Amino acid sequence: MRLSTPLLLTVLPLIAGKVYLKDTFDNMDKWVKSSVEKFDGAWELSSGEWYGDAEKDQGLKTTQDAKFYALTANFDEVFDNKDKDLVIQFSVKHAQKIDCGGGYVKVFPKGFDGAALDEETKEKYSIMFGPDICGYSTKKVHVIFTYKGKQHLIKKDIKCEDDQLTHVYTLIVKPDQTYIVKIDGEEKASGSLTEDWDFLPAKEIKDPEQSKPEDWVDEEMMDDPEDKKPEGWDDIPAQIVDPEAEKPEDWDDEADGEYEAPMIDNPEYKGEWKAKRIKNPDYKGPWVHPMIANPEYAEDDSIYHYEDLGAVAFDLWQVKSGTIFDNLIITDSAEEADSFMKDTFSSDMRDAEKKMFDDAEKEKKEAEEAARKAAEKAAEEDEDDEEDDEDDEEDEEASSGHDEL
Length: 405
Description:
Elements: E1 19-23, E2 31-33, E3 43-46, E4 59-62, E5 67-79, E6 86-94, E7 100-102, E8 105-109, E9 127-134, E10 138-147, E11 150-153, E12 166-173, E13 178-183, E14 186-192, H1 193-196, E15 204-206, E16 221-223, E17 239-241, H2 253-256, E18 263-265, E19 277-279, E20 291-293, E21 309-318, E22 323-331, H3 334-344, H4 347-404
Antiparallel strand pairs: 1-22, 2-5, 3-4, 4-22, 5-21, 6-12, 6-22, 7-9, 8-9, 8-21, 9-10, 10-11, 12-13, 13-14, 15-20, 16-19, 17-18
Subcellular location: Endoplasmic reticulum lumen
GO cellular component, one term: endoplasmic reticulum lumen
Pfam families: Calreticulin
């Protein structure tokens, strides 16, 4: 008898995205500091004064005011995002209530030497992404791509968070040439790379062979040629002598000079004469410059594509230090990045951080109020002491006077 072969059920594992760099900043082993003297800002590992989880929220912190910072890490392997998503995600906590400074990262091609990062090489990045704050006018999320050797800034204004809590910034670039920017998992901007950046020249340009005809009339209204200025119009002065003014009785011609009555606006004055306006019979409407196809335009479906991404850097200037960066991931999977955020930035952690921050603010205000009251009390006591001293002096003077008698 032929035995039947048992049915083998094969369970295929879920295909996870590939991670090219992930760091929760348990240490700084992956990171290289610039050896260039200008970029000497010192870093440390810290969770800050408020956090959701002391261990998970340890990140990379700037520690010196008015400094340039530069720190670079290489990817685990070169990232070619052809036909793949490109996802950059990290958290930023401006615990110092930053007034002017960057909170972004820069992604570089393979072979970038982080130790040699300087004024020139720091601009050789492929992508720059993240928040930037300076004063009241600049509170934006930068999304800058380098395309054919030129840096292109996003044309949209994406507002960044400006409080003192942790926020997660996510950039997703897709092979269909679309993008998404998220903050704390919530979409803040999305669209087309070709529409929201000026990567390509315009599809159409004004025909250089065409110009507005000399006899083209684009004035819809004109002065009525039959309307004439009334005779004597210009003879009416704008001001006249005040007929009610009288020379003061105490006016002295020799001392005060010849009396001149003050001038007032002439109620008969009609202003500058202007002819009536009528429809222009020769009006042809606005002239529209004819457009032609731009010979320099060429579609490019590979704008999204970077074939050799290999390093990421924090290249920053901060007036006031204290920013904490954490939970950096660069991957080809939005799902992978989202899962990482849920693990490192859960709603419970956010609530705990917010409570700890609120408690710290409350304690700070109470301490400031107590200090204010103590200063007021000390001032009052000083004033009472001065009054007591004055009274003592008066008593001494009075006693001295009686002794003389």
